[in-house]
């Protein structure tokens, strides 16, 4: 058994005083009964030797290309006076043989296991050859630099005294519970540190340490008359930050504004919804979710080419016929993909194929102009890159939650460009004579990402003000109609970062990306009753 030695980690059952002093350990098995190797962090030279052994084993067995990954994930939530850190170590080897992929993985880090995994991945690739070898390209590496990178954070929660984090969250929970009409609340804040090592048969070797802090917070209110309303508070959603994500923002002040908005909504009358078409105001969190589901997912190149057909579906965007010509939305819609923004969950120095991510326009003036690509997907779009004068390259979208998973294309951090003019949520609302406003809805789309619906709290707007609530309303939409009906966006001051979770693949892979979004107004969306 092998263990990655942390600068600080928490041991289940340790005394609080011991935790405060900064124990340097991960739960190591009894050395008398089980042999262990302690690695001095992700930069330990022994890890490079393990990866190189796997690459040599794969190429000696016949792989034309091979890459290998080690991952070590540490995570904890605040639950009581003592922390429990969940750790996961993984080792994965991927190979290309005669145009076919092979993959093998294990939780064991050792040179012996490296030899086995390299050979096993090649054996699997050869078993995938159906009739004859195929010409299956992957895009060349524009840059294949090696090195180490650590995501910049101010307060590493794994180096802090647990009591400090526990005190902060407990005090915030007590504050929330003290608010008038409080019925229930939730706060699922998770702290994650992931260390990764990557090497390929082209000679590249990289190590990096990534952080993710945050999670959903929400509450519901119940009035003396039995009226109820709830919603989500989005300032604490997952971000690529440390504990400063919570401590360095005016969390209570922002939550107070959120609470007062809920309180004002609680007193609104419950009105009867007439089915029809309404101008619709969507706050930033709704726009972020819509962007992830209807722009992010269908522009993933593997989804577009049908590799997700039996799992997440086939997106409606045909990358061969639609790029540069398909009008997904109005001229106001501009969406970029990137993995370099400070504080974003997806920020990395290298993706899980060793690619340094590049910023790419996905939607420009409403037109679909590019796809989110890994190396394999970029090669399939080489004619498009050539025609448009672009470099045929991966955009750095390859991601794997753990080295036991095959790298897949996952959403980059997406940004919706704000509209010039400085609109806010309130000013957008004031522009609506008769319409609706969505708040914290559940949004779902079909396997093509083209038809969707919402469920959740809905407000009636008249002459720029909320005058009532609907309890049984749902917006149904087709993605191109939705975005082509976009008539207003918030300005730069209304931009907010939201952590959005997504799932794809078989076995299922989960990932979190940041979406930088603003509130938006759509004209004449279809509204129906759900009961």
Characterization of this structure:
- The protein is built from twelve helices and 26 strands.
- The chain has 531 residues and is α+β, with helices and mostly antiparallel strands.
- The protein has a six-stranded mixed β-sheet. A six-stranded mixed β-sheet has the order 15-14-13-18-25-24, with helices on one face.
- A hairpin with a 5-residue loop joins strand 19 and strand 20.
- The longest helix is centred in the N-terminal third of the chain and has 18 residues.
- The radius of gyration is 25 Å and the shape is globular.
- About 6% of the residues have low confidence.
**Shape call:** globular
Total strand count, please?
26
Return the structural class: alpha+beta
Mean pLDDT: 91
Helix content: 10-25%
| Strand order of the biggest β-sheet | 5-4-3-8-9-6
Distance between the termini: 56 Å
Give the biggest sheet. Answer: 6 strands, mixed
C-alpha Rg (nearest Å):
25 Å
- Proportion of residues in β-strands: 25-35%
Question: Multimeric state of these chains?
Answer: single chain
Please work out how many helical segments DSSP would assign.
12
User: Stretches where pLDDT falls below 50 for ≥5 residues?
Assistant: 5-34
């Amino acid at each position: 058994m092998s263990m990655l030695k942390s600068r600080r980690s928490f041991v289940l059952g340790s005394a609080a005083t011991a935790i405060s002093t900064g124990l340097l350990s991960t739960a190591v098995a009894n050395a008398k009964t089980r042999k262990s190797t302690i690695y001095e962090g992700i930069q330990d030279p022994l890890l490079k030797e393990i990866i190189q052994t796997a690459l040599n084993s794969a190429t000696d067995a016949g792989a034309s290309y091979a890459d290998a990954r080690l991952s070590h994930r540490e995570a904890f939530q605040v639950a009581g006076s003592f922390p429990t850190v969940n750790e996961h170590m993984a080792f994965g080897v991927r190979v290309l043989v005669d145009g076919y992929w092979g993959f093998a993985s294990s939780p064991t880090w050792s040179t012996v296991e490296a030899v086995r995994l390299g050979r096993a991945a090649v054996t699997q690739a050869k078993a995938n050859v159906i009739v004859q070898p195929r010409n299956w390209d992957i895009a060349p590496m524009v840059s294949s630099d090696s090195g180490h990178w650590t995501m910049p954070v101010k307060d590493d929660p794994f180096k802090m005294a647990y009591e400090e984090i526990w005190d902060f969250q407990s005090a915030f929970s007590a504050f929330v519970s003290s608010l008038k009409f409080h019925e229930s609340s939730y706060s699922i804040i998770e702290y994650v540190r992931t260390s990764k090592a990557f090497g390929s048969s082209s000679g590249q070797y990289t190590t990096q340490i990534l952080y993710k802090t945050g999670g959903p917070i929400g509450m519901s209110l119940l009035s003396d008359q039995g009226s109820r309303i709830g919603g989500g508070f989005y300032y604490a959603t997952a971000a690529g930050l440390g504990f400063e994500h919570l401590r360095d923002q005016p969390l209570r002040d922002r939550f107070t504004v959120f609470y007062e908005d809920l309180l004002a909504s609680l007193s609104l009358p419950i009105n009867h919804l007439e089915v029809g078409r309404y101008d619709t105001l969507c706050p930033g969190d709704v726009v972020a979710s819509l962007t992830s589901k209807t722009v992010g997912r269908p522009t993933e190149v593997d989804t577009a080419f049908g590799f997700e057909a039996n799992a997440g579906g086939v997106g409606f965007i045909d990358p061969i016929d639609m790029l540069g010509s398909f009008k997904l939305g109005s001229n106001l819609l501009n969406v970029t993909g990137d993995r370099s923004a400070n504080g974003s969950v997806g920020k990395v120095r290298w993706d899980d194929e060793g690619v340094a991510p590049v910023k790419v326009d996905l939607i420009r003036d409403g037109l679909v102009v590019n796809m989110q690509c890994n190396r394999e997907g970029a090669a399939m779009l080489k004619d498009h890159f050539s025609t448009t004068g672009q470099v045929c390259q991966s955009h750095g979208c390859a991601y794997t939650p753990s080295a036991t998973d095959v790298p897949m294309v996952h959403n980059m951090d997406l940004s919706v460009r704000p509209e010039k003019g400085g609109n806010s949520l309130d000013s957008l609302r004031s522009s609506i004579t008769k319409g609706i406003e969505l708040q914290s809805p559940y949004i779902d789309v079909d396997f093509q990402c083209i038809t969707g619906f919402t469920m959740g709290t809905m407000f009636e707007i008249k002459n720029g003000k909320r005058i009532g609530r609907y309890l049984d309303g749902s917006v149904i939409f087709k993605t191109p109609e939705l975005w082509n009906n976009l008539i207003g966006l918030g300005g730069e001051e209304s931009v907010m970062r939201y952590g959005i979770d997504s799932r794809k693949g078989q076995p299922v892979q989960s990932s979190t990306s940041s979406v930088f979004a603003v509130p938006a107004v759509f004209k004449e969306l279809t509204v129906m009753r759900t009961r």
